[in-house]
């Protein structure tokens, strides 16, 4: 028998945990940088389903065995690398917008990395362990992720149409680097 409590608790817990989280800023930055809100939305959906599904399935196993500091260090350096990569000359935003698979894969990988060791992943691990309802916890935590991040995608799209693209490009590069530095700082404090 399925417990709808697992679905509702997972949805609410993850939606609340995501408010103001780095993945909301990541969604905003990606849509400003690349456009393609639906592509980014589906990348977030795929990353959340994979990440939260594995987290719920494995439950306490990952919570007890993964070194979260190492994960944060890898994630921090990955964000810095993406920020520096975005500074490369010769890649116009228009070119990036025409690469649907490139935008999808970029968003998917970044969201997957951003969720490693994040509070929503840990919450999903704990909810999976508590309820034992892998499917409902996965669906609920994914819905919570989408409820928190979808508004950032469409708000970002509106900003992208009104603000200068070149300035946004450099601002997004700087923000990726800052997110990486803050992630490293959190890992080493």
TrEMBL record:
**InterPro entries, sorted:** GDT1-like
Q: Keyword set for this entry?
A: Membrane, Transmembrane, Transmembrane helix
Q: Which GO terms describe its molecular function?
A: metal ion transmembrane transporter activity
Which family does this protein fall into? Belongs to the GDT1 family.
GO CC aspect terms: membrane
Q: What is this protein called?
A: GDT1 family protein
Where, subcellularly, is it found?
Membrane
- Provide the membrane topology annotation: Multi-pass membrane protein
Q: Which residues cross the membrane?
A: 38-58, 70-87, 99-114, 134-155, 167-188
Name the species this protein comes from.
Answer: Halotalea alkalilenta
């Amino acid at each position: 028998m399925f417990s709808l409590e697992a679905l509702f608790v997972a949805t609410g817990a993850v939606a609340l945990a995501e408010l103001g989280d780095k993945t909301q800023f990541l969604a905003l930055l990606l849509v400003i940088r690349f456009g393609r809100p639906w592509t980014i939305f589906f990348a977030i959906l795929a990353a959340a389903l994979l990440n939260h599904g594995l987290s719920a399935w494995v439950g306490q196993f990952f919570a007890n065995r993964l070194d979260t500091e190492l994960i944060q260090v890898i994630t921090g350096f990955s964000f810095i690398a993406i920020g520096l990569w975005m500074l490369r000359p010769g890649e116009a935003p228009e070119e990036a917008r025409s690469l649907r698979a490139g935008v999808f894969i970029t968003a998917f990988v970044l969201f997957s990395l951003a969720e490693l060791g994040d509070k929503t992943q840990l919450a999903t691990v704990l909810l999976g362990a508590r309820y034992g309802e892998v499917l409902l916890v996965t669906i609920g935590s994914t819905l919570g992720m989408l409820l928190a991040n979808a508004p950032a995608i469409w708000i970002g799209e509106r900003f992208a149409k009104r603000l200068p693209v070149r300035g946004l490009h450099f601002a997004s590069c700087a923000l990726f680097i800052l997110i990486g530095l803050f992630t490293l700082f959190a890992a080493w404090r």
